[in-house]
Amino acid sequence: MNQLTTMERRGLSAISTPGGRMLIVAADQRNGMKAAMSDAPGSVSTAELAAAKADLVRYLANNAPAILLDPEVALPAVVDDGVLIRGTSLVVGMDASGFETVDGLRYTRLVPGMTARRVRELGGDAAKMLWYLRPDKQDAGSRVAAEMRELIEACTAEGVLLIVELLTYRLEGETEHEYAAAFAGLVADGARLARECGAKVLKLQFPGGAEGCAAVTAAAGGVPWAVLSAGVDHETFLTQVATAMANGAGGAMAGRSLWKDSLSVSPDVRRDYLTKRALPRLYELAAVLDG
User: Which of 42, 92, 167, 270 has minimal CB crowding within 10 Å?
Assistant: First the structure.
């Protein structure tokens, strides 16, 4: 296990339920959230997206331990405008939208100007950075591992808990069957590589079942990991979370499974859907985590 500093322990506590389970509403998506708001995502303005994110905080995330938001649209407005309440912690997403492909491998980048210090300036209690990873092609000497180590060290020096999010993906020329057969092992091997790079907290894809979750827990070597919703429906995610928790996971970070059918572009309808659809789902998820 990679030891947490005192400030990182405070960050982990801030994003956790009373039972000590991580629970974060993920709302740092930009293009993906526009797609949930309209069949014509390009017609959704930045101002409309910012208003939707504020409503997500106001009517949903203010009832959770923490909210994950981006520094391009949502922040610092939800803090400066008093939308985010005192009892809900803020996780600042550091990754920019999209990725570049080099020699068949995907690479993400930081939002311009984002640093560990900037996370603090935005009022963050913790940070999150996404890396795409194929641990069968990338090892501890790879570019992605070097990027991971550098940011983890910078955040530790600043006293910011960094949540390392990993996404594995299918390579060009790899069949769906080949990828499906390798998937659980890729998630576990990714967790192992991130731990070797110094990760303190992990956000990971559901590795397919109880055996996969147990393998991830073993690979993480004591580093707490939370399962992400990856766009599955709410009932499916509840089942995945229960399986993950029974096999060593430390929490959940839920986005679209909570709110993807609640983001009408009409503010009145959005408020109604968030309070009557999304909020009960949040409470059900919290019950699974602490139950």
Answer: 42
To the question of pTM greater than 0.85 for the whole model, the response is: yes
State mean pLDDT over 86-91: 96
Query: Would you list the DSSP string of the chain?
Result: -PPPPHHHHHHHHHTB-TTS-EEEEE---SHHHHHHH-SSGGG--HHHHHHHHHHHHHHTGGGSSEEEE-TTTTTTHHHHTT-S-TTSEEEEE-BPSS-EEETTEEE--BPTT--HHHHHHTT-SEEEEEEE--TTT--TTSHHHHHHHHHHHHHHHHT-EEEEEEE--PPTT--HHHHHHHHHHHHHHHHHHHHHTT-SEEEE---SSHHHHHHHHHHHTT--EEEE-TT--HHHHHHHHHHHHHTT--EEEESHHHHTTS--SSHHHHHHHIIIIIHHHHHHHHHHHH-
Is the confidence at residue 53, as pLDDT, over 80?
yes
- What CATH architecture is 6-290? Alpha-Beta Barrel (3.20)
pLDDT digits (tens, 9 = 90+) for 101-117: 999 999 999 999 999 99
